Amino acid sequence: MLVMNNKANILIIEDDPVITEFLQTGLKYEGYKVSVSNSGKDGLDMLRQDTFNLVILDIMLPDIDGFDVCRRIRNRGLNIPILMLTVKKEVSDRVKGLDSGADDYLTKPFSFDELLARIRALLRRIGKIRENKKIQAGSILLNTETREVRREGQLIDLTPTEFSLLELFMRYPRRVFTRETLLNRVLGYEYDGGTNIIDVHVNHLRNKLDDTSHRLIRTIYGVGYAFYTEE
Domains of the chain (ranges plus CATH)? Predict the structure, then answer.
């Protein structure tokens, strides 16, 4: 399970309330401290008043654009990791963001799992977290580095979505996840394929884990799913 030396303090500078809620809820769920600003000016003010370990910065802000905010942060001599978010997909925009001082760049829409992976990578660079690459739950062993899953030593072939679901379940045994939460966490906040797609992926995952009795991945009727380790 993920281990943090100290809970990382993350500042989100984003003006879209849907994305802000998505990020804030998910990151707090992961154990991070989260502060939010909906403008570049306020975000810069917050960076003067508090110490943060990472900034998630949108480019399209209502006052100062994210490129300028990023440059101002660097001009202050702050080496805090900056992850930029944008709907712009052109290579020139990614280059501009990185040239402004950003450490990484994520294009909307994105999956929450990918966001977490980017955050963990950035925090590892400054020694903020250390992560166990192997998660054990009964006879199931999941390796996040090789992306392999084995049960009783036998390799199980999972799709990327099935792997992400199982990793989330195994990190938080007995925690009940709603279908909407799983949808957002695994497929991204803008996915509009319907919540029943989660049921399809869970059923496939159960079959591959030989969980025909649903003892591992249990349906919490009217809510969602929870993962239980073998007893």
Answer: 3-129 (3.40.50.2300), 134-227 (1.10.10.10)
